[in-house]
Design a protein that fits this description.
This protein has 7 helices and 3 strands. The chain has 183 residues and is mainly alpha-helical. It has a single domain, classed as de novo design (two linked rop proteins). Pfam families: Tma16. InterPro entries: Tma16 (IPR021346), Tma16_sf (IPR038356).
Length: 183
Amino acid sequence: MTSAKTKKEKIFHPQSRKAGQLVRASLRKDKLRSLVSKRGLKHHSLADGYRFYHQCVPDEGVLALEELHSIVRDTWLTRFGVELEAEHATRRKGRPKSTSQIKLEELKLRESEEYRTGLEVVDLTHGPTVELFKKWDQKEIAYVEQLRFIRISSTDPSVAVVSRPGKHPSLLVETDVQMRDIS
């Protein structure tokens, strides 16, 4: 039989240099873990929005700007209406709002304010972008980030500003052709 040597764990004085190094390393790891967690939550919320717009993609052609506004106004901004009504109905008179109701109301208010000032959405009015968006597997956010995005606003529904022209190779080729046509 071979006996495995067990190494004793060293105990450091609390004010020693080594203890300080271990504390800093531990804090650094905790900070990185929290950043990964926050990034995951952000990606999850982005993916939910992109999935919603992916379901709105027409089978043939593209959406008109007015149709895109009606989807945002009538469907996207009102998607929590049923949950808010249920929360309101379950609350007894004179009782404070539940935490989930407060969060839903804040989210709804934030999104409506964002739509009023300018909401950035995938450009479903642009043919090549729509064709690329149809090919999305609904998992990889980086793919959608390469597409063309426009900023729409409830204050001026007839205007859409290209906020991100798109970095997908097929969109870059199209942009180069348009630039040559202008010259």
